[in-house]
Write a structure and sequence with these properties.
By secondary structure, the protein is α+β, with helices and mostly antiparallel strands. The protein has eight helices and 24 strands. The longest helix has 31 residues.
Length: 466
């Protein structure tokens, strides 16, 4: 007969008195093992993320804005039944930081941004763990908080700033279902009767035109006495996916009285991206929404801001060979101190990365400000720095702009890696520039902002040590 090890024996008749107490402890532990396993399993289930727990909140706050009825997302994520079939794809896109669509590298340069769509790492980990666990619903009586959503056709800043003070519409255009790139250049009146400072601005193509309007630039021009037009400056810039622009408090980006807006609209028939309609778009109109400070704000604003196109290298020299790569870089400096308020790189289908650095000649130091390693032409973002951390650039320091291009099969946006790609304006060409909003300072203003930051930093350190 096979001998049973004492630790698993329930009999004590062969146990001497010296070992009896130890044996009984082992026996109690053995009998408790199934209950311990049940408790551990229950704890694991309790720790597993569920849709009706944290997962639903994350999706409602970050995804439903696009993935809903009437939204621009290709599927709806408004409830568990809609989301569950897509859970593995959600996990993949979130883990790769491809969704939400805001390409901006973590851990490099400035991370405090306005209008930042990126998920926190703990939110990504929660989504991944939820799908790994089988995407459970959780407590059916516990629903995630409903998202606070504007109408999909509404302006982005309505919830914080209300409706725009002025809407400037382009001329109506019909866009065919296919064919070559189209451009429209024309003037419209701004309707501005007194100099005003812009608080925020958004450009919004109407309806299905979102996928066919490649970009829409708007310049401000004033009419001279002889009837000729003179450029005053850039009003704003729009490219596919752009959220909008916010001008910092105490700063004026001016739109002058009597301004004429010169539209330059580039359209791609059929559209780009997953939501391209591939159909005729009739009566297409692009609109600018302006939120304005009260009259007189220009006189009390401390500084002036402008938005400009900063060329990176001569566009006619840009060549990306078939199945090859290219890189461009450009340098810009100022004879007075400035603050860099936002950075928006621009390219087309072969561009895949961009960066902004600052070189300080006095120290020989180069500092990384922003890097975008997975850039896509279907989602342009104006990376708006929090005013408390926006780069303060002394006179003579150099902005270094770099962009990279991938004309190989590895680029998912590349329509034809066998082609030479040249610099140009068509969708199939490439561009190499960035849109940057700059607040222009004087020496006193620069020193004041530097001192204020040092004081905030000292208070923060003191608070942390209390």
């Amino acid at each position: 007969m096979k001998r049973v090890p004492k630790i698993f024996s329930l009999s004590t008749e062969h146990i001497n008195s010296k070992n009896k107490e130890t044996h009984m402890k082992h026996t109690r532990l053995f009998l408790a093992l199934p209950l311990l396993g049940f408790a551990l399993n229950a704890s694991a289930q309790h720790d597993t993320p569920t849709y009706n727990g944290e997962v639903g909140r994350i999706i409602n706050e970050n995804c439903v804005v696009c993935h809903r009825e009437g939204g621009i997302g290709p599927m709806q994520f408004e409830n568990y039944e809609q989301i569950r079939p897509w859970a593995p794809l959600i996990q993949l896109k979130v883990a790769r930081r491809e969704m939400p669509p805001y390409a901006y590298d973590h851990g490099i340069g400035i991370q405090d941004l306005q209008g930042d769509w990126r998920l926190q790492q703990e939110e990504i980990d929660t989504i991944v763990a939820w799908v790994d666990a089988g995407s459970p619903l959780g407590d059916p009586d516990r629903q995630p908080p409903a998202p606070e959503l504007n109408d999909p056709s509404e302006w982005n800043f309505v919830s914080t700033l209300g409706q725009p003070d002025r809407i400037i519409a382009s001329q109506s255009m019909d866009i065919p279902a296919n064919g070559n790139d189209l451009w429209s250049n024309h003037y419209v009146s701004s309707g501005i009767t007194a100099d005003r400072c812009i608080k925020a601005v958004q450009v919004k193509p109407r309806g299905d035109a979102k996928a066919v309007v490649h970009h829409a630039n708007s310049a401000v021009e004033l009419e001279n006495a002889d009837g000729t037009m003179e450029r005053y400056g850039q009003l704003t810039e729009y490219a596919m996916g752009k959220w909008g622009e916010i001008v910092p408090e105490g700063v004026c980006r001016t739109i002058p009285a009597g301004a004429q807006v010169r539209w330059s609209i580039h359209m791609f028939p059929g559209g780009l991206g997953a939501m391209a309609p591939g159909s005729v778009i009739e009566d297409n109109v692009v609109e600018i929404g302006l939120w304005l400070h009260p009259e007189g704000y220009e006189e009390v604003a401390q500084y002036k801001q402008d938005l400009k196109l900063y060329q990176i290298s001569p566009q006619d020299e840009l060549v990306v060979p078939p199945h090859g790569h290219a890189m461009t870089q450009g340098f810009h400096t100022f004879d007075h101190p400035v603050r860099v308020d936002s950075f928006q790189p621009h390219g087309h289908l072969r561009m895949n990365a961009a960066s902004l650095e600052i070189f300080y000649p006095e120290t020989g130091e180069t500092v990384a400000v922003s890097q975008i390693s997975k850039w896509s032409a279907t989602w342009h973002h104006s990376h708006i720095y929090d005013p408390d951390v926006a780069p303060l650039v002394p006179a003579g320091a150099v902005l270094i702009l770099k962009q990279w291009y991938d004309n190989t099969e590895a680029n998912p946006n590349n329509p034809d890696p066998d082609m030479f790609v040249m610099g140009g304006s068509r969708t199939g060409d490439e561009m190499t520039h960035a849109w940057i909003a700059i607040t222009h300072l004087d020496d006193e203003g620069f020193d004041t902002l530097v001192a204020e930051r040092k004081e905030r930093e000292a208070r923060s350190v003191a608070s942390a040590n209390d």
